[in-house]
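Hey, I'm writing a tutorial for new members on how sequence and structure tokens pair up, and I'd like a real worked example in the thread rather than a made-up one. If someone can provide the structure for the chain below, I'll link this post from the tutorial.
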Amino acid sequence: MTADGFEAESGGVVLRGVRDGTGRPVVLAHGLTAHRDLVVHGSRALARAGHDVIRYDARGHGDSDAGEAGSYVYEQLADDLDAVVAATGAERPVLVGHSMGAHTIATLALRDPERWAGLVLIGPASVGVPLGPESLANWDRLADGLADGGIDGFIAAYEVGMDPEWHDTLVRIARDRLGRHRDLDAVAEAVREVPRSLPFDGIAELAGLDVPALVVASNDEADPGHPHAVAAAWVDALPAARMIGEGDGEGDRVSPLAWQGGKLSREIAAFCAGLG
């Protein structure tokens, strides 16, 4: 199975991505500091299940161009996603996003819900209210570490307060994803700006997003940056959503479903099949 590259222009930035497979289009939007292959962690199960899988690097990430300072905000990221959909000709796609990607999808979908066949929202972290000073200081510490010390500087800041039992896994994943970016300064700028942006103004706005939705939650122990309570709040607010996650009969130390690319892809494919 061969992936074809594409480019999309948005706000003076060239976004780069790849697509493979045929069938119902599924557009993947990754999280902050991640890249296009990390939404489903390299799994090709969606393409094999009969989907046209479109994945791209967000501005400042992976192979895409850096944006200007101040452009790493959800309204612009939503414009970028819209440009990817237009450039690829995807009609009524299913939008799938993790963390920043989930927030980007919510911002775009709220503009015109009827354009989308369905939404898969993985690890949402915002309820549409500004972060407090302590949380913003943590993000700034990560941004400073990356800008001043590269990958090692980021890891040193990232390790602060980390659960020792998840340390090796989290550090390995972080090093892998950061190694995929051609412009670490752009990633650092995104780390500083994105957490200061809001995907919507309060969780109640999601009531206007009457689209079939699947919310993927994580257990807080392994992934405290994406609280289970936030995923539950999204499900409560969205008119047509259900929630899945790891944990049922799987033990306390199981990896979050968001990290299990093959299994997550099968859940996404099952959701898509249910859309008719």
